[in-house]
Amino acid sequence: MKAAVLGAGSWGTTFAQVLCDAGTPVTLWARGTEVAAAVTRLHQNPRYLPGITLPATLTATTDIAEALDGADLVVLSVPAQTLRANLTAWAPLVPGESLLVSLMKGIELGSRKRMSEVIREVLDVPAARVAVVSGPNLAREIAERQFAASVVACCDELSAQLLQRACHTDYFRPYWNTDVLGCELGGVVKNVIALAVGMGVALGLGDNTKAMLITRGLAEIARLGEAMGADRRTFAGLAGMGDLVATCSSPLSRNRRFGEYLGQGLNVAQAKELTTQTAEGVTSYAPVLELARKHGAEMPITEVVGAVITGRLTVGDAAAVLMSRSAKPEWYGAELPEGRPASPPGVTCVYRPPGADAVR
């Protein structure tokens, strides 16, 4: 089996390394000749992964036809908003039977389509030929061959298992499932929540605040996912909680770092200048909110992050808005498991504090 990885940023290069270490030959496509030459000749990508020695079997090229020639796996790792244009140009060169793999964690502006949906639409391929990789995968740590796990998802079990075998190493452990929708939504929305956590870090708020944002952020992801038809179990796994915790907790996370810049008083343009790679949450929050409104899912953290990005709220005001929301039951907006009553049989009033209406 041969793979083409299209995109030589930190995650594209790292996943190419994983594939090589798993015994899958890879040609990495890079836009810049300097990056391609460094990967092939020096076994390094000094722009995105300085100090990391890449496998000698990994080669890179700026020729897209060369990269795609004979590829059984076509791995896509470009900024989400550029995917459609890139794929349209590359379509005649994509091998007809290849498995198409998305590493991207974004939602397309305008269409509100997930990356797997864009791939299927542009290349006119069935869902069984499109897979996604999502999980707590900070590129630098995996490039250093620290232990990590991820989810490879495809509606076709055999395709998911094929991809699993192609990227399974002694340090990178992929699990497979068939919930492409849930895996993609988890990967997208966690970036928005990480922006909020970064803002909190910049304000000097502590671990209680971070834990609150992570946990309530997970509730937002699950509400949207279930409303759209995803498997609720996905959000308790690597592509849900796992990815969210890593992205919100680590200073290696570009979305959390971008949030810190905003919390320090920089505007979006200034923060982009300091961020060497795309922070997908800065763009994806808008189509995420459109999907939430369409499906009736309440997402207050995402709402205030969007208001900060567009200049409608300051970071301090955003925190105050979240904390002034009315009190609610913890699981509001989530359907109870089928057949489980909302309260014990025959019990209607659980507690009546003095001078208050019954609390149900």
Primary descriptors:
10% strand; disordered C terminus; N-(1-d-carboxylethyl)-l-norvaline Dehydrogenase, domain 2; globular; alpha/beta; Rossmann fold
Word description of this protein:
The protein has 360 residues and is an alpha/beta fold. It folds into two domains: 3-178, NAD(P)-binding Rossmann-like Domain (Rossmann fold, 3-Layer(aba) Sandwich), CATH 3.40.50; 188-323, Orthogonal Bundle (N-(1-d-carboxylethyl)-l-norvaline Dehydrogenase, domain 2). It contains 15 helices and eight strands. It has helices spanning 10-21, 33-42, 64-68, 83-90, 115-123, 139-143, 157-166, 180-202, 207-228, 238-249, 254-263, 268-274, 281-295, 300-309, 315-323; strands at residues 3-6, 26-29, 59-61, 73-76, 99-102, 130-134, 148-153, 172-177. An eight-stranded mixed beta sheet has the order 3-2-1-4-5-6-7-8, with helices on both faces. Helix 4 links the parallel strand 4 (73-76) and strand 5. Helix 8 crosses helix 13 (281-295) and helix 14 runs antiparallel to helix 15 (315-323). It is globular. It starts with a strand and ends in a 37-residue tail after the last helix. Residues 339-360 have low confidence and may be disordered.
Please write out the topology:
Blueprint: E1 3-6, H1 10-21, E2 26-29, H2 33-42, E3 59-61, H3 64-68, E4 73-76, H4 83-90, E5 99-102, H5 115-123, E6 130-134, H6 139-143, E7 148-153, H7 157-166, E8 172-177, H8 180-202, H9 207-228, H10 238-249, H11 254-263, H12 268-274, H13 281-295, H14 300-309, H15 315-323
